[in-house]
Specification:
By secondary structure, this protein is mainly alpha-helical. The structure holds one RNA strand of 78 nucleotides.
RNA sequence: GCCCCGUUCGUCUAGUUGGUCCAGGACGCCAGAUUUUCAUUCUGGAAAUCAGGGGUUCAAAUCCCCUACGGGGUACCA
């Protein structure tokens, strides 16, 4: 029980969940399940100014859709709650104070404006201002000010923050499960704020305290946290929690398909693919961002695609169910470098998964869609169409564009195809053929009609392609679609002949 | 600027302890086959002098160093 693996996904509710975040959560999930451990959801809402209405609900709904279940956390509960940091607010101050008492942290009274001025000034001199072991003695804090003045300031109720005190000349080292051994010089690090003047902890403090209290054993998170990891390690040591400090794994980022930098919301809009699992309606800007779900992606496809973006099992297998991923996943095989997102491959994954969906399931959905379009047809027909069309679709929503002609008579005939196939005199030939097709008995008409056509074309030394394509053109409106016999079977004698005769009349060459 | 991390086909990547890699797979691309059409499918092809340069070694994509480039961080944001 003591060594039970526990991991967490800890997003901030500042907007919709980015697919990079989804992948981070996925890897956490896979690792937890593989080790029979727990996967928790913690909401890190310590920055009240960035809170966005609905973001938390969005996050929970996203994981429901993706099929990644949390064992503990916001929306579920558990023995280590509450799991929302704003609800844990009273807890953090004592920990910050404990660090002050141990001499590992100090009060700082500099205002945000004063520090901003220092930064702009330094910038003008082409330097960088940093609140650290070299500058802190010349700033306003409990290290530089006399004790009685500090006490007076504190008693006066003036706003203050609590900063971590990095010792000079230490080398902070730790091991990352993905990147190996990492070293950093403490003198180069800045004294990060741990406790803000609004009474809230910063990410750094809250994160370490909660991970410790929630008995987190492995921290799997994005690479953007790597530079602050020495601070986190130092915090564990300062608290005296080093013996059960979690192991760290910093994941590479998902990058833009083109250009430079990490994938952002704008890239999705610009390049036309979703960056979020679900569609998001921004409450402030009213902007709508597309989601994988609404774009027609299957959750399993998204999971599979994301899992393979930066990880593989070393074999040539690319299609993995969630259960298989749980079995085969390993942190050691995660690549170290960022991966550019490839929307073509995402599409391919969806195609693979769509083919595995039962025709019946697709047909039911499609049947509903057709009803909504005001098309009356039988379920039987829809089922036939689906089994004929499915493999040419990457998304269920492509069903319509690939099979509309089964339900709607062609309004016009594709110009290019017409020019190529419908020559002078074709109408006359088609008229003759139509006459014969009318005379074929209804029973098993499609098969008999095809047999007749083959026979007729041969006997009259006609061009096969020419005749069949003209028939197709008449029925479909273009030279596309599945086998003509299949189309004839689905549509039946009356409809086929109606369309043929209409075409002959309309084209009339 | 400073700090950290990275660098194999256009893209995602294989390449665990250096030799069997003149580098394998997948997506995409091109061609052929099948489908008398389109799409699917199948077969084949082009595509990385392993970022560049130095070492070490009989032998390096694989080890070491340097440079370049890319990414991240540098907030009382996470």
């Amino acid at each position: 029980m003591e060594n039970r693996v526990r991991v967490r996904f800890a997003p901030s509710p500042t907007g919709p969940l980015h697919i990079g975040g989804v992948r981070t959560a996925l890897y956490n999930y896979l690792f937890a399940k593989q080790n029979d451990g727990d996967f928790l959801l913690r909401i890190e809402d310590t920055d009240q100014t960035r809170f966005v209405e609905g973001a938390e609900e969005y996050i929970i709904e996203s994981f429901k859709w993706l099929g990644l279940q949390f064992d503990e956390g916001v929306g579920i509960g558990g023995p280590y709650g509450p799991y929302k940091q704003s609800e844990r607010k009273p807890l953090y101050k004592d920990y910050a104070l404990e660090l002050i008492n141990k001499g590992k942290a100090y009060y700082a009274f500099d205002t945000a404006e004063e520090l901003a001025a220092k930064r702009t000034q330094a910038e003008a001199e082409k330097k960088t201002f940093q609140y650290d072991c070299k500058t802190r003695m010349s700033l306003k804090n409990s290290l530089s000010l006399p004790a009685d003045e500090v006490k007076q300031l504190l008693d006066s109720g003036i706003p203050y923050v609590i900063r971590f005190k990095f010792e000079e000349g230490e080398t902070i080292e730790f091991d990352d499960l993905i990147r190996g051994h990492i070293k950093m010089e403490s003198s180069l690090l800045d004294d990060k704020v741990l406790y803000k003047s609004d009474g809230m902890p910063t990410y750094h403090l809250a994160n370490i305290v909660d991970d410790h209290l929630m008995r987190i054993t492995h921290v799997i998170r994005g690479e953007e946290w790597l530079p602050s990891c020495p601070l986190h390690v130092s915090l564990y040591r300062a608290f005296g929690w080093e013996s059960d400090m979690p192991q760290f794994a910093h994941l590479p980022l998902i990058l833009k398909p083109d250009g430079k930098g990490k994938l952002s919301k704008r890239d999705g809009d610009r390049l036309g693919f979703p960056v979020f699992p679900l569609e998001w309606h921004d409450p402030k800007s009213q902007e709508i961002s597309s989601g994988y779900r609404e774009s027609g992606y299957l959750p399993q496809a998204v999971v599979n695609m994301l899992a393979l973006l930066g990880w593989n099992d070393g074999t040539e297998q690319e299609i993995f169910s969630l259960d298989e991923l749980v079995k085969k996943f390993s942190i050691e095989r995660i690549s170290k470098h960022g991966a550019k997102f490839d929307m073509e491959k995402a599409k391919w994954f969806n195609h693979q998964y769509l083919q595995q969906v039962d025709d019946d399931v697709l047909a039911q959905e499609y049947f509903k869609e057709l009803q909504q379009k005001g098309i009356s047809t039988s379920y039987q027909t829809v089922m036939q169409v689906v089994s004929l069309i499915k493999e040419r679709c990457s998304f269920a929503k492509e069903l319509w564009q690939n099979s509309d002609y089964f339900f709607v008579r062609p309004a016009e005939y594709a110009e290019k195809a017409l020019k190529k196939r419908w020559k002078e005199g074709t109408s006359q030939v088609m008229k003759t053929i139509s006459g014969h097709l009318h005379n074929i008995e209804d029973n098993d008409w499609a098969q008999k009609a095809e047999d007749f056509l083959m026979d007729y074309i041969q006997k009259n030394e006609l061009n096969m392609g020419q005749i069949m394509n003209c028939l197709r053109l008449s029925v479909v409106g273009d030279t596309k679609g599945p086998n003509m016999l299949d189309i004839m079977q689905v549509l039946g004698k009356d409809e086929i002949l109606y369309r043929l005769d209409t075409a002959i009349e309309k084209i009339n060459l």
